[in-house]
Amino acid sequence: MDKRISLDGIEILQTLGTGSYGRVRLAYMQAEKQFIALKIIKKTEIIRHKQVDHIISELAILRMIQHPFLVNFIGFTQDDRYLYFALEYVPGGELFTYLRNIGRIENFQAQLYAAQITLMIEYLHSLNVVYRDLKPENLLISGDGYLKLTDFGFSKVVEGRTYTLCGTPEYLAPEILMNKGHGKPVDWWTLGIIIYEMLVGVDPFSDDDPIAVYQKILKGKVKFPRGFDKAAKSLVKHLLVSDLTKRYGNMRGGINDIKNHRWFSVINWHRLSKREIEMPYKPFISSPGDTSNFSSYPDSSNMPSPVCSDDDPFIDW
């Protein structure tokens, strides 16, 4: 189903986040009486950085996916200077911001979050989509406390292996760094990073120098602080394995090696997938357009005064 939207009747409001090629802004669709997140991408920037294929892939994947733990795609349009992706607005802010505010997460809450991330990856992999940019900044918190995955800019449909270097330094799997070709197992590696980061408050290979980060990843030695949950430690060690034949999620047992791990023994997977489990944390949201859970950004003077030009050939709808 085509999801072409018109900018007429959309009021563009404050910035929710920024990236290399544009920003995400809160917007209000007046006819639908609905707040949305509007991802606004500068055409000149994605052409200059040779990211056109990534953007086309992102759009194709957004149109393909439908899952309770992934942001819903509402529609797309463009004008002479910008592409616009209209997405579900998730008002609880980023897991990144929440983590920074509280330091670290208690074990049970981390189990609930990690289980949701496991279901997100399972669904994407069932479509042969490798996500490739799993990190707390891309996990949003819904009003009911459940997570939603956003930003599919690095995602790619991969049947076997791909060789593009992309991702965020601290979260890159060793096979990406070594340019050996990579596929679905990179997402399971990153699940291990996020479990560690939720429980400790910092990622396991953290360093101010990106080169030092890469060296630590390739060495693969993870230091666990005293008091780190033993079952969580076991799962993280099974995920942060350089040898793909031994990495959980990529072995003969597939995702069941992860779901049946003892750290997840408290999880009722069926009830979780139906969003029937009460979340320990629910963000305070005063109204549907409340942005208080997001960081503040100065508004850029050159973003956008849209002029719709529906016949622009940049993306052939």
UniProtKB/TrEMBL annotation:
Q: Which GO terms describe its biological process?
A: anatomical structure morphogenesis
**Coiled-coil boundaries:** none
Q: Name one GO molecular function term.
A: ATP binding
For this protein, the record's InterPro entries field holds: AGC-kinase_C, Kinase-like_dom_sf, Prot_kinase_dom, Protein_kinase_ATP_BS, Ser/Thr_kinase_AS
Chain sites annotated for binding ATP: K43
Question: Pfam families annotated for this entry?
Answer: Pkinase
Domain spans labelled Protein kinase: 10-264
What keywords were assigned to this record?
Answer: ATP-binding, Kinase, Nucleotide-binding, Serine/threonine-protein kinase, Transferase
- Gene Ontology cellular component terms for the protein in this record: cAMP-dependent protein kinase complex
Residue ranges of every copy of the AGC-kinase C-terminal domain listed in the record: 265-317
Q: To which protein family does this belong?
A: Belongs to the protein kinase superfamily.
Its recorded name reads: cAMP-dependent protein kinase catalytic subunit
The species this protein was found in: Blepharisma stoltei
What phylogenetic lineage does the species belong to? Eukaryota, Sar, Alveolata, Ciliophora, Postciliodesmatophora
